[in-house]
Amino acid sequence: MAAAQDMIADVDAETVQRGSDIEEMVARLRGGDVRALARAVSMVEDGAAGAGDLLAACRRDAGQALRIGVTGPPGAGKSTLVDQMTRWLRGQGKTVGVVAVDPSSPYTGGALLGDRIRMQEPVGDPGVYVRSMASRGALGGVARTVRDVCDVIAASGRDAILIETVGVGQAEVEVARLADVTVLVLVPGMGDEVQSMKAGVMEAADVFVVNKSDREGADRLVAEIVATQGSPVVRTVATTGEGVAELMKTVMQCGEEERAKRGSTADRDWMRGLRLDHLGVAVKSIAAARGFYEMLGMAVDHEETVEHEQVKVAMLPMGRSRVELLEPLAEDSVIGRFLTKRGEGLHHIAVKVTDVDATYLRLKENGVRLVSDQVRVGAGGHRYFFVHPASTGGVLVEIVGEG
Prior knowledge:
The protein is α/β, with parallel strands linked by helices.
């Protein structure tokens, strides 16, 4: 057990900020304090100390915010449409959070477009909270911390959260995993671009919008969507607000249907899809170790260097699971110290779940001893956290979710 404790100390030496300051911040943001909300969002987005405890506190009572994803190619008018959707919600007496994902600056890594530029109308309205986030190179049109930021905003009691993606086209399907309702904005004259989307983002959309529908070709685009998709199609002219009321009524109806579906599976199998994801094996040299596995017919299909963990990873698929060979880049890294103390061998086992965030919260609430203070991003872009051997029968267990 002493060796296991030493290993855990090496895996994650960061301390977690705990105490009354986190609870006070959560109480303030729940009470409508916008400054507390902004600070909490910054902590989560930056991965600051205490972010894990803050998220856990927010998720204990995350509110009932309807999450609406707005996606589509650049130039489709998403920002203007989101502005109009926000106005409609405010007209209905709803409080709104807006998360606008912008391209990242190549110099600072921050968002190239600011929220005050994208949405002029809500400035000064306490019922609207707008946050611009940089995509930071993440695929799928959204940054990896968007889900966490939305959870914090939801905890503040907002009735609806609009998530506007950066606009990257076919691969922009990640927003569908974050939103209750996904709105795909298209415009007349896209031609082959619509065809290329059919195998990607169009399959994930709940509602289709033909924006700038006063342009030539709008009827043709609507007909094409109706013929190939089973989702509602709404025409809008975002610059004037035309069609926005019909769009929002459709979105709200889809949201109610989604909530009814969730209600029928209220305790909805938070560990659905549970399976062994991989075995992590610490080795001195990937080049030397891979030979054995290759003799078994396995082959390395991906290699990656994870700088913040100071480790090189080689992945060898094995059915639905895989073996991960872990080679340290430095002697004082986690894997380097593991090799010094225990030699080559099994470092951890990884179990995959459908919802890693829900699993983290459920285990924490039930007193399971966790190594990680929050869900992190590792090799291959997968999201993960570690469970202490004291709670697992003596083995370090990694819980992983989708990348």
